[in-house]
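Feature request disguised as a bug report, sorry. It would help if multi-protein outputs had a clear separator. Right now it looks like this:
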Amino acid sequence: TATQPSSIAAALRAQVEAIDKNQPIFDVRTMQQRIAETVGSRRFNMLLLSSFALLALVLAAVGLYGVVSYSVSQRTHEIGVRMALGAQKGNVLQLVVGQGMVLALIGVAIGIGGAVGLTRFLSGLLYGVRPTDPLTFTVVSLLLTAVALLACYIPARRATKVDPAVALRHE
């Protein structure tokens, strides 16, 4: 119907009674309401797992940002020396991002191994995808790597702005 489906329930009930008074009409709901009721628990599980996955992604990004940022702050003198000796900003950027990405890629590799090992525990929560779906593993790995790259890039960018004279006088 083009109108609100619940608004025609009374008319539907009257038409059925007109044909056969012995036919009971009860629990009138739309198909969308019935489907929502049927998949409600699955949807809740998916929402809960998605929320935890997003939280884990944010925590990983913040953690990696913190580690790389701390590393940059500890190496300010070294970065200043490198820049005073002629290192370009691109070299410093590559150095800092490269070191952070090594950590991230090790984490992704360990995570893939752990995920493959734990797929049998999550197989009951997956719908429409195999527990070892290569596309899912690839997309998630690329997403984690991209987030890690961003988390490393921000402190690396700050490292390129180090003034060599200030960094050398700092100690």
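(second protein starts here, but nothing in the output says so)
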Amino acid sequence: MLFSPYKIRNKIFKNRIIMLPTVTNFATENGFVTQKNIDYYKIRAKGPAAIICEASYTHLLGKCFPNQVGIDGDDKIEGLSRVAKVISEHGIAGIQLALNVKTKTVNELSRDEIFVLRDSFVSAALRAKKAGFELIELHFAHGWLLNQFLSRAFNKRVDEYGGNLENRMRLALEIVEMVKDKVNDDMIISARVNANDYAKLTTEDFKLEEAIAFSKRLEKYGVDIISVSAGVGQTTYMHVSPMSMPKATLVKFAQKIKENVGIPVIAADRLNYYEIANDVIKSGKADFIGIARGLIADPHLIEKWQE
């Protein structure tokens, strides 16, 4: 099952394995792609059906790593196209659009600032399309900006972007709607979603019930894939799990979301053993398995599995 194909829109995924985005810090200080970025993806491109390149900031306000890739200007398109090209030679090239604003909380952003950041995702999606990427992922997880809007643990706003779940989802859904309108049906859209923030371990956490409701709305707005994760900054161990954590610990969340939506779901975290990964697909708990650190450690892992 792990090496069976899967079709989304008019794109054929050659197997059920997707390399998930992980910041490399290989870009220049200004966010431009370097040869090291290109070489990194080229050596890993043969195995997985798709590679979703690392979280790329859509606006300078949301840059949070010193050598993070940027997609915030048209001058970045040429370098990004070289990355897309080496991936596309073997599979589907994707890129994650993300913001992690450190200078202000979601509660301190003005409405005008929200609109600027919202629009930056739309502009970035168009750049991704021009660069030759076939898939874009919107980052709604891990305590990054859009995840903070979703969670009562972070979001204390009293305007239309805060309060009940409908309001807290508003910005994310506006971005999805605007991106879909600009890229039409030419690109696959993935959404990275936290099934549980584990932020404060209180009733304010963004938990599975809200994640399911959010995933249903994402599907209604035209998202093609839900990539399921968990944890925020102070609970990074939930999505970058150490060896002491059980294998496949987040699969139960992917399965629950899959049971409630009609679009494919990616399971992630500690799935870097063939038997475990294959069982997730064979048992129908998810449609794809996502691997990041396994492919960092061994760029040829998937090829070895197939052999």
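Even a blank line would do. Unrelated, but nice: The CA atoms of residues 68 and 199 lie 25 Å apart.
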